[in-house]
Task: inverse folding
């Protein structure tokens, strides 16, 4: 696969570093074994989630984070899904 297809958009690339990028192969961002320790080492207790597929990846990440006792904020205007119905149902729209 052409890795440029999954790169950060140019406007965000200027923040890495110092920001970190965690690649994942599963639906939940927290399936990446480095993320949870990374956040705990920095004393992070709140996570803001954005992303595509509200009813799959975003939902999976939020549920995983709740299990790990993070306070979750879903940036509703920065999420999307293939299905408007499931997207709206999950966000209470």
Result:
């Amino acid at each position: 696969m052409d890795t440029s297809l999954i790169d950060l958009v140019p406007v965000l690339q200027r923040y890495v570093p110092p920001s970190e990028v965690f690649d994942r192969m599963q639906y939940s961002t927290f399936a990446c074994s480095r993320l949870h320790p990374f956040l705990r080492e920095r004393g992070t207790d709140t996570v803001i989630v954005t992303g595509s597929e509200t009813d799959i990846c975003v939902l999976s990440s939020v549920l995983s984070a709740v299990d790990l006792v993070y306070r979750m904020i879903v940036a509703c205007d920065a999420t999307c899904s293939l299905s408007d119905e499931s997207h709206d149902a999950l966000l209470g729209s």
About this structure: The domain at 15-88 is CATH 3.40.50.850 (Rossmann fold). The two ends are 36 Å apart (CA to CA).
